[in-house]
User: Which sequence fits this backbone?
């Protein structure tokens, strides 16, 4: 018999949050129990681990966090609202659902059930499907100690976006929201996720989103990451696609001290489309990391991935995109590219596009570029009277604009362009 | 308008301009000709403020100011315009957006209000007609996918929009067929007035049939080695540059 000795750091980390009174929902108690067991066997990853090579988690690991439920407080949401765009709003404060701030739809076509709601849901059994809580400590941590979340299930063509707003505040707080989004057969759903943080210091947000696209459904997931100081953010998105479905994720990072986004897509059915777009522009000493996996498990599918970033000052960008094409997944078109512009000598970009192909009749490409702004173009613009600053801004806007242009909602596009200072 | 005195410029270790002297007055058109590698494009780049070149000696006075002390954008805002030999393609930046920014930053630098949208559009319509630039090109990204002729017409269109005091046309005729050459020249001639001046840099005489110069200068090995009237261009066309080289080398 082997004895497992829990790592001091993990046990210490867990013990500081495990004391908190989180509701223990019967329907997830088994998953939680398992995740807690796994936590006793896992260690925080070091940069020797390839998956964490460029993003150090030591500062998160050595901190003591606790939960803070402020869900009854009334908050101002104006800064993240999209002018001229009507949305429903589901607000989380420090990871807890805040009904007083939310504006939920009452429609037969859309079902919203909180995890904390005792009644069972037909998607309960899908909880944690394909989420790597075995080796990924942060996924396990969320499963073991998630604060609350919702299952949103669309049953029709649901045009009005659901705006999930995460509000964070406080010091040494951990927030662990968890959501499931389901688009049932022939339905469509648009989710928009924004964040607000005020007076945060040593705040850690570790969120998990699970997506289930049934046959012939469409799901758009827009994320705007615009954080003030004092937050470290880890997001994990797991997507499961059935046949004929279209999943599109758009991730726009405006600001953030330290962000790590993991998006893993499992394409289980034939004739699917997967689109992953992202833009980032770290400045100062910011650290922005995007890791994606697209796993083609079925034939006749297409995936498009395009991430672009500008890295200024002493900031760091990380991109790692993996595409798997499994043995029997023939007739796959998979495209992936990552382009970066380094704006200073001290800026760093780590870019690693990866393709693993086991089928023989596929069309795949990937590419990565990291360069500088074109001096000739800057001179050309200056020679027409633009200052160096606005010439640079115009060129950066043009560069990042390519992935902002992908947004299908004009009002939202306007807002994102404005946040990037392109308008 | 501009007085260039003993101008020396280098790129890296290599000296390209070795003492240029030239005076251009308002209302005049000067042609600068010369064999390949004589320094023609360097002269235009230096006047526009390209930082790849280092000025080692000499001075340039532009309407009473030390031109060499001004940044590229300050020169542009004070009325210097360079039509590029190879206009740059800028994907993602629309022609219109770029021009509006250029005009409004110039106005802002002069303490003027931004140009009203209506006035801007009226001016675009008028000036694009001057060089027969198709409206669809205006909405496209700057020079991206433009043909050689379209790029050159776009340069003259920008010149018309910005209304410079001193226009420097760097080999604007290169890559143009005869029809495009006529259109471009027509545009340049229309913009000519007693208050502005033009420096036409060209390798061939044919452009000067359309844009008739008051003075012709021959640049060779970084110096102006011969100046004359428009008949000098014809002589060069007929006899080539060899006799000039011989004269200089002798």
Assistant:
């Amino acid at each position: 018999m082997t004895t497992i000795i829990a790592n001091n750091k993990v046990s210490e980390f867990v013990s500081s949050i495990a004391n908190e009174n989180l509701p223990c929902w019967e329907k997830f108690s088994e998953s939680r129990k398992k995740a807690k067991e796994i936590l006793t066997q896992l260690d925080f990853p070091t940069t020797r681990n390839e998956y964490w090579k460029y993003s150090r988690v030591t500062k998160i690991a050595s901190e003591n966090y606790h939960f803070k439920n402020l869900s009854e407080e009334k908050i101002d949401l104006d800064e993240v609202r999209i002018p001229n765009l009507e949305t429903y709003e589901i607000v989380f404060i420090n990871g807890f659902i805040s009904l007083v701030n939310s504006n939920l739809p009452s429609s037969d076509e859309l079902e919203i059930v909180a995890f904390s709601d005792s009644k069972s849901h037909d998607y309960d059994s899908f909880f944690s499907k394909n989420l790597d809580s075995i080796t990924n400590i942060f996924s396990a941590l969320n499963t073991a100690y998630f604060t609350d979340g919702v299952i949103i299930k669309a049953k029709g063509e649901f045009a009005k976006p659901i705006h999930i707003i995460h509000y964070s505040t406080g010091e040494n707080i951990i927030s662990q929201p968890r959501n499931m989004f389901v688009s049932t057969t022939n339905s469509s759903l648009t989710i928009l996720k924004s964040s607000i943080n005020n007076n945060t210091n040593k705040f850690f947000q570790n969120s998990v989103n699970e997506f289930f696209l049934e046959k012939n459904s469409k799901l758009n997931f827009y994320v705007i990451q615009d954080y003030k100081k004092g937050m470290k953010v880890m997001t994990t998105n797991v997507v499961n696609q059935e046949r004929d479905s279209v999943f599109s994720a758009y991730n726009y990072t405006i600001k953030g001290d330290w962000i790590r986004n993991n998006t893993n897509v499992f394409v289980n059915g034939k004739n699917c489309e997967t689109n992953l777009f992202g833009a980032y522009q770290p400045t100062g000493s910011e650290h922005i990391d995007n890791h994606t996996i697209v796993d083609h498990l079925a034939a006749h599918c297409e995936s498009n991935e395009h991430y672009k970033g500008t890295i200024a000052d002493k900031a760091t960008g990380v991109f790692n995109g993996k595409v798997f094409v499994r043995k029997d997944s023939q007739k796959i078109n998979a495209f992936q590219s990552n382009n970066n512009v380094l704006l200073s000598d001290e800026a760093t970009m780590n870019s690693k596009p990866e393709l693993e192909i086991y089928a023989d009749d596929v069309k795949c490409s990937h590419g990565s570029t990291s360069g500088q702004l074109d001096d000739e173009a800057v001179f050309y613009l200056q020679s027409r009277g633009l200052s160096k600053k606005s010439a640079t801004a115009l060129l950066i806007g043009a560069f990042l604009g390519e992935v902002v242009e992908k947004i299908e909602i004009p009002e939202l596009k306007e807002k994102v362009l404005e946040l990037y200072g392109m308008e | 308008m501009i007085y260039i005195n003993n101008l020396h410029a280098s790129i890296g270790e290599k000296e390209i301009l070795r003492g240029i002297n030239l005076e251009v007055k308002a209302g005049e058109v000067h042609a600068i000709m010369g064999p390949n590698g004589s320094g023609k494009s360097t002269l235009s780049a230096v006047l526009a403020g390209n930082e790849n070149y280092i000025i080692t000696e000499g001075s340039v006075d532009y309407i009473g100011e030390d031109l060499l002390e001004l940044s590229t954008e300050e020169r542009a805002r004070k009325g210097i315009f360079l039509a590029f030999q190879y206009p740059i393609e800028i994907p993602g930046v629309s022609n219109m957006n770029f021009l509006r920014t250029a005009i409004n930053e110039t106005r802002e630098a002069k303490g003027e209000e931004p140009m009203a949208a209506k006035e801007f559009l009226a001016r675009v319509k008028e000036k694009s007609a001057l060089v027969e630039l198709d409206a669809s090109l205006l909405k496209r990204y700057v020079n991206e996918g433009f043909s050689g002729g379209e790029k050159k017409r776009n340069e003259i269109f920008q010149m018309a929009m910005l209304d410079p005091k001193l226009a420097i046309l760097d080999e604007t005729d290169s890559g143009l067929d005869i029809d495009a050459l006529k259109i471009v020249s027509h545009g340049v001639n229309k913009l000519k007035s007693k208050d502005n001046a033009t420096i036409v840099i060209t390798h061939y005489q044919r452009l000067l049939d359309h844009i008739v110069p008051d003075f012709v200068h021959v640049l060779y090995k970084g110096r102006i080695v011969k100046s004359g009237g428009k008949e000098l261009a014809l002589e060069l066309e007929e006899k080539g540059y060899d006799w000039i080289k011989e004269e200089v080398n002798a």
About this structure: The helical segments of chain A are 8-18, 29-41, 58-61, 137-145, 375-382, 388-404, 410-419.
